[in-house]
Structures are given as C-alpha cells and as structure tokens.
From TrEMBL:
Keyword terms, alphabetized: Membrane, Transmembrane, Transmembrane helix
Record has Membrane as a keyword: yes
This protein's name: Integral membrane protein
Chain ranges passing through the membrane: 21-45, 137-159
Amino acid sequence: MMTTVRLWRWRRNALKRRSDVLEAWAVLLTALFALVGGVLLGVAAGSGVQHQLLRQREGRQPVRAVLAADPRAAHATSSDVPQGHRPATVSWRADDGRRLTATARVPRELKAGDTALLWTDPTGTRILPAPPTRSDAALQGTFAGVATAAAITAVCWLLRRWAAHRLDRHRLDTWAYEWARVGPHWRREHGLM
C-alpha cells in the first residue's frame, strides 16, 4: 500500500499535474545523485586524502638525534605539544655530515644523552613533524570519504527540498489564480453570495 501511495506520480492519472511529474523527476534524480554521486565522490575524496598523507612519508626521512639537555617542562595548555612530549635541544648529523642542532618535541621520559627518532626534510637539515602512519592515513581517508558523501547527500536533500518548495508555491499560485477566476461564478450559482 505504501509503495502504491509513493509511486502515484508515475502512474497514469487524469488529475496528475505537470508539477507532479517534475517533482517525481526531481526526487528520483536527487536520490540517484545522492547515492551514486555521494559514493563515487566519497571514495575519490577518501582515497585522495589517504594518498596525499602517504606521500608525506616520501618527503621525510627518519634520523636519530641526541638530546643535548633534559626536556623542558611545557605549558599544560600548549596545543602544539603532543601529550607526553616536551621540547628539548637535540643534535644530529645531516646527509652532508654537518652537525646540526635544533629544538624538537621528544618524549618526556628521555634525558640528556638519550637518542630520539625524529623526522627531517630530504636534505636532513630541518626537523619536520612525524608523517602519519598507514593506519592514520587510512582512518583520515575514511573520515574524509564519509564526510564528503554526507555533504553530497545533504546538498542533494536541500536541492530536493528547494525544488519541492518552488513547485508547491507554483501549485498554490495556480490554484489561487483558478479560484479567483472560477470562485465568484461558483458562489453565485450555489447561492453563497
């Protein structure tokens, strides 16, 4: 019964209006684009993000750095320092053999003289944040894909609601015009004036 009610705009009917057919097509096309377009664009966005994050590994190389001093206490509210990490002065050898020194975030349990694994640019001269792991890249890619599919679906739903609103306004305007034309004659005939 419910399917019959929902598909009435697709059946032959003398009372069916042109706007009913347009609304049926709008519903079908937005649902189709939300399903197919949402899935395809979601997969494309997810794999693009994952590929971009995995490419970051190619531009970074691991290096063993020696702590020159104990890590300093970082402010508890600092958002740029990961939990369990503190800034410390470290030194390492670049690819050309130079001894370099910089401040980097290292695990708080390390002491002066300990070694820490850090990531540098391809020349080995500048410390960079650690690249995402494969599982992190997969998780972020999945999130990006789901968010893209949800956004596409929301846009399709909003477009469908906008089209339905415009068609309803058109139907009401048409009805008001017809009633203004026929209403006075109908009232006189039925003695309602």
